[in-house]
Write a structure and sequence with these properties.
Chain lengths: 303, 324, 310
């Protein structure tokens, strides 16, 4: 194409917007986190890197290492997220697999039904669950009838009979419910791209079905799985509303709650900003990993 | 009743609520919010004034203060001369419970607060107020520490340990919605304000549930008794109407109406005869101790502004508690 | 790659045909079908139930209790149209979604076109920045904007403007992904042909490229609308008061207490608007791509969604 420059101008308004409201916004977090507070506990950002005050960052780091005030929250968040993404994998993989390879004439319908949760607000989906799991709700009754509550109690997973009474297991299941659609769809697209001919090749070479799955399809779906796991783990790391709705108790609070409490709740905004910086640094690796896999996929589609 | 005022003055009244006083202060002190009237608590007053969020009241526009309100609050120690505030409602903080679901008698216990601490059978169905002053303050009283405005980190940490024990025992939800959740039975026992009980009894009982299932207890001497305050925002675009609103809320009929029909929190009106309300069945007898008397108020223990170190200590303890 | 296996197939035993016999191991495993449909039910039933409760006669929000529209239109102060708080939330949500849609789509389209063609220095980092919002947790993003509007851009401050800006910023990346996908499908051929025929570059864009992008534009409008109306975290952080509450914020605030079916009614209405937008976009999409060779339209939408989740 001739005029190369014009394309740069095209991108300009969007880039300026993102530059200001995304990049500068993030810089504001850094400046506040590495800034100070005034006598009324409102944050003073230190915009100039030479002025940066690491006090709050140090405090934040000290609170998240073992023995620190927030260490328990960090451990709990990691546990909840790990269990939740494994749950999403166990539930989501078979569904994505079915939808991409075995749905036959139902495929269109299945895909529509799988997309539907995207159009329903996350909060509304959680709200539906608070009604179900209330002591007099249908969900509680069904779980009782199936004796699942006694099963979980005996396993030490459930404390008492109230699913909404500060139970970690409820929060984990809610996280799975909330985020598994975001795992299934990309995985579906990725599995869909696995060339049918490779399967047929395996079959022609005499591989029985289980083997063709474990040794051909599963390895090929690994990038899709990893990308999907990262994709759902990221929002979980910033989630605070799921546990507030489904539990409300400090004993199930996640790292998102801690940051939310600091920023929204009071005189420690600078500490909250510092914790946000820490969280972002930890997640940055995963974010970039996912972006790279996204670009690779887009490149494949183009080819 | 807000609509009444609106009609009278030709304005529309909109109400914004926040989840906790801390969040309110946080949002109020950041830029550009256009409120006319701010409802708050006395311990926030010096912060609000310091941040220049309030304007001094024009006494002439709020004559109902001297006319109708208890003398004790004409010139309260938190705002001598009532320069910035008029009182809104008075309340105590104590323990409310569903007597049909759990059988406790705090008045009969040596340390009434233990009714909550020992309510292990109600795990997950309990409430702790989402207010660092109230929560830690209650813990201090339970531990026998009478000064709920202390800046001492030692005492604050004793309170924190007691709260952590509470969390272990009864796994409370940290909220302020007991006025709805207690009548509905989602909470069966918890820390709440006296007005929550009355408001719940008046407005939120499901059909078929009588008000007598709810009970209340508060520590008679040294327990938290205080009032909310009404103030006019410095950024108000309609300060005169804002003043008139404050005056309106102090009219006996309006205040009474607000109390009995809406919020369940009692106004410090001279003309209000609490006993009469119970006798006439307007309020349920079982909650007779949820009404604050003038004597109780005068002898009360209120939450005042903390020093900077105190604020830090309380905040640190509360964050630690919230982190689980 | 496919050449080798077929050669070998010719020399090994003949392949079994699928669906041939009862004991055929290559047919569809039943349990997989079961799992999928059970999942779909589990996924959608709670929401369907919540919608049904909105039509309750009684006050219960956990059990089905008669049929009535009173939570929607009743003249008591508890219905959606009787309670100004609920009504304002709905109108505010629609307002934000509409504004976000109108601002994010053009910006995103231009950004996508520019990025796709830009080969110079800085295009790498620009690409990363354009897509970073997709993977940033909403809380981090919301905290950033909150602090930005309260410390630096205090003239804008919190409120509707801030909320719109927030919604536009995180939706833009979705638009970029969608439009890029379409650009790749369309390819440079038609544009190059137009340019070769002497059309000036702006005319090429306006009269050739944009019409070709129409389905992506329709999809973008829809996605931005849906993202905005369903958004919670950014809206809550940038809200300034009762005036600026959105439907998800209301649901969150009231769900923690003891809500009435009117809350379900509000959520149902929000869902209704989203589905209306979806149907509209689908119709427009089919209309715009009629005559084009394509896979099932549904799969195209699915592949768009695979670019990112929220």
């Amino acid at each position: 194409m001739q005029k190369r420059r014009i394309w740069g101008f095209f991108a300009a308004p969007g880039m300026l917007w993102l530059g200001l409201f995304f990049v500068v916004a993030f810089y504001a977090v850094i400046s506040v986190g590495l800034g100070n507070i005034n006598t009324l506990y409102q944050p003073i950002p230190h915009w100039n890197p030479l002025d940066w005050n690491v006090g709050y960052l140090v405090q934040a780091i000290e609170s998240v290492i073992p023995g620190g005030q927030n260490w328990a929250v960090v451990v709990r968040s990691v546990i909840y997220i790990t269990v939740a993404i494994i749950g999403a994998l166990l539930i989501g993989y078979p569904v994505a697999y079915y939808a991409s390879r075995h749905a036959g004439r139902w495929r269109g319908l299945v895909v529509v039904l799988l997309i539907l949760p995207f159009w329903i607000s996350y909060i509304m989906r959680m709200f539906a669950w608070t009604n179900l799991l209330a002591p007099e709700g249908y969900g509680s009754k069904v779980l009782s009838a199936l004796s699942i509550d006694t099963l979980f109690s005996s396993l030490g997973l459930l404390d008492g009979t109230d699913w909404l009474g500060g139970q970690g297991i409820t929060v984990i299941i809610a996280l799975i419910y909330g985020y598994v659609p975001f795992f299934i769809l990309p995985l579906f697209a990725s599995l869909d791209r696995i060339d049918q001919r490779v399967i047929e090749a395996a079959r022609d070479l005499g591989a029985p079905p289980p083997s063709s799955f474990w040794r051909v399809i599963l390895p090929m779906s690994k990038p899709g799985i990893l990308a999907g796991l990262v994709l759902v783990a990221l929002p979980m790391a910033g989630d605070y509303y799921t546990q507030t709705l489904m539990s409300g108790s400090p004993s199930t609070s996640m790292i998102g709650n801690t940051i939310n409490d600091y920023i929204q709740g009071g005189p420690d905004k600078s500490l909250g900003a510092a914790m946000t910086i820490l969280l972002s640094v930890v997640l940055l690796f995963f974010m970039l990993y996912y972006l790279r896999s996204l670009r690779r996929e887009q490149g494949e589609v183009a080819a | 009743m807000l609509k009444e005022f609106g009609k009278r003055e030709g304005v529309e009244v909109k109400v914004t609520t926040f989840d906790s006083v801390d969040e309110a202060f946080s949002k109020l002190s950041t830029a550009g919010l256009e409120f006319d009237v701010i409802v708050s608590t006395p311990d926030q007053l010096s912060k609000l004034v310091g941040r220049k969020l309030l304007q001094p009241l024009n006494e002439e526009l709020v004559p109902n203060l001297k006319k109708n309100i208890w003398e004790e609050i004409h010139s309260p120690f938190y705002d001598v001369g009532s320069r910035y505030t008029v009182p809104y409602v008075v309340y105590t903080t104590g323990i409310g419970w569903r007597n049909d679901k759990v059988n406790v008698d705090p008045a009969g216990l040596e340390n009434g607060w233990n009714a909550l601490w020992d309510a292990t059978s109600q795990r997950g169905k309990t409430q702790l107020l989402d207010d660092k002053r109230e929560a830690l303050g209650m813990a201090m009283l339970r531990e026998g520490q009478p000064n709920i405005n202390t800046a001492s980190p030692e005492i604050v940490n004793i309170a924190l340990a007691a709260l952590e024990e509470l969390a272990q025992n009864v796994r409370p939800k940290v909220q302020i919605s007991a006025y709805e959740t207690l009548p509905a039975g989602r909470i069966t026992i918890g820390q709440m304000w006296s007005g929550d009980l009355l408001s719940g009894a008046i407005n939120y009982l499901p059909e078929g549930t009588p008000a007598s299932v709810m009970s209340y207890w508060y520590q008679p001497e040294g327990g938290p008794v205080f009032n909310d305050i009404l103030t006019v925002a410095a950024a108000s675009k309609k300060p005169i109407i804002a003043h008139r609103f404050l005056n309106y809320m102090m009219e006996p009929q309006v205040a009474y109406d607000n109390f009995v029909n809406y919020v369940g929190y009692q106004p410090p009106q001279k003309s209000l005869n609490a006993a009469k309300l119970f006798d006439e069945g307007i309020l349920p007898k079982s909650l007779s101790n949820a009404v604050v008397t003038q004597e109780a108020y005068a002898a009360g223990n209120g939450f005042l502004t903390l020093t900077a170190e105190g604020e830090q200590a309380w905040e640190k303890a509360w964050s630690k508690f919230r982190a689980g | 790659m496919s050449a080798v296996p077929t050669e070998q197939a010719a020399t090994s035993k003949p392949a079994q045909r699928p669906g041939f016999s009862l004991g055929n191991p290559w047919s569809k495993p039943r349990w997989l079908t079961g799992v999928t449909w059970v999942y779909i039910l589990w996924s959608l039933l709670p929401v369907l139930l919540a919608i049904r409760v909105a039509f309750n006669e009684g006050r219960s929000r956990t059990a089905i209790d008669g049929w009535s529209l009173k939570w929607f239109f009743g003249d008591n102060s508890f219905s959606v149209f009787g309670d100004p708080a609920l009504q304002d939330a709905l109108t505010h949500s629609l307002l934000l979604a509409g504004l976000a849609m109108l601002i994010a789509t053009p910006l995103g389209i231009m950004l996508a076109i520019g990025l796709q063609r830009w080969r110079g220095r800085g295009s790498g980092p620009a690409n990363v920045v354009a897509l970073l919002p997709l993977v940033t947790p909403e809380l981090v993003f919301a905290v950033g904007l909150f602090l930005l509007f309260t410390t630096l851009l205090t003239t804008i401050g919190l409120g509707t403007t801030a909320q719109v800006i927030g919604h536009v910023t995180f939706s833009m990346s979705f638009v970029v992904v969608i439009v890029r996908g379409r650009l790749v499908t369309v390819g440079p051929d038609v544009e190059e042909a137009a340019a070769d025929l002497g059309a000036p570059p702006l005319a090429v864009i306006w009269r050739v490229l944009l019409p070709l992008l129409a389905p992506a534009i329709a999809a973008s409008l829809l996605i931005v609308f849906a993202l905005s109306i369903d958004d919670f975290v950014v809206s809550q952080y940038l809200a300034s008061g009762a005036d600026t509450a959105t439907v998800p914020m209301r649901i969150y605030a009231q769900a923690r207490a003891a809500p009435l079916p009117s809350l379900n009614a509000l959520a149902t209405l929000m869902l209704l608007f989203t589905l209306l937008a979806l149907v509209l976009a689908y119709v427009v999409f089919r209309f715009m791509t009629r005559g084009e060779k394509r896979g099932s339209a549904i799969e195209q939408i699915a592949s768009i969604d695979s670019g990112g989740g929220r």
